[in-house]
Amino acid sequence: MASNYANNGKSQMKHQTTNQWDDKLWAASEPVYREAFPEHGRKSEAIIRRMFNRALCTLHVWSLEDATVAMALTAYDERTWTLIIDYIAVNQAWQGRGIGRSCVERIRDWAAAVQPECRGIIIEVEAERTEENAKRIRFWEGAGFKLTDYVYAYIWVPETYRAMTLSLNSAEPLTSDGKELFKAITRYHERAYRGKD
Question: Care to name a GO molecular-function term for this sequence (predicted)?
C-alpha cells in the first residue's frame, strides 16, 4: 500500500492505493462507489474481491478531514501499456470543489511513477447524447482527455460507450482508434468477470 499527500486548497488530501484486498479501505470507499453507480452499472463486491485475488486492479481512496471523498478502481493493460480507469467517483457532499480533477491528476502521477512504461490512460464514457453524458465528457476533456469517435456496444448492458484517452508519452501517444482501445477495455472486463488471463 502506498500513500501520498496533495494540496487541495487549504486542506491536505490523502491518496491511498492498494493492489491487495483491504477490508478497511474497501469499507471506506464502498459508500462512495454505491452512491455513484447504480447496481446494474457496478461490479459486485465478490467480483472485486476476485479481481484483487487475480491481481487485476488497484483501489484508490482519497480522504480529507477524516472523510472519504473519492474512490477509483484502475487496471493496467500490459499488452498496450495503458491504465484503464474502471470506476472513479467523488462523494456527492464533496463535489464541485475540484476534487475529481485532483484525483485524476493523482492517478496520472501515480501511473507514471508505478508503471514508467505506461503510455497513457483510458476511460470509457456513455455515448448516448444526454446533458449528463455531455457534462462527463466535458469534465474529462478539461482533465486533458480526448474523445474518440468509435461507439462500442456491450452485449451485457444496454448503454453504448466511447473511449477517451490521455497520453502520458508524447513520443508514443495512445491511438485514437476507439475500436483498438476497446480491445484493451473488454479484455480487462472479460478477465474480471470470467477469470480469463
Answer: acyltransferase activity, transferring groups other than amino-acyl groups
* pLDDT reading at 127 higher than 50: yes
What are the E-state strand segments in 32-135?
A: 58-64, 67-77, 82-90, 120-126
Looking up residue 82, the CATH number of its domain turns out to be 3.40.630.30
| Mean pLDDT, the chain, integer | 90
* Residue span of the structural domain in which 85 resides: 2-194
Residue of higher predicted confidence among 6 and 111 = 111
| Cα–Cα distance list, 20 to 39, 55, 61, 99 (Å) | 23, 7, 13, 25
Q: Per the structure, how many domains does the chain have?
A: 1
What does the pLDDT look like over 84-93, one tens digit per residue? Answer: 999 999 999 9
Q: Which pLDDT band, with edges at 50, 70 and 90, does 120 fall under?
A: very high
**CA angle, residues 107, 112, 115, in degrees to nearest 5:** 105
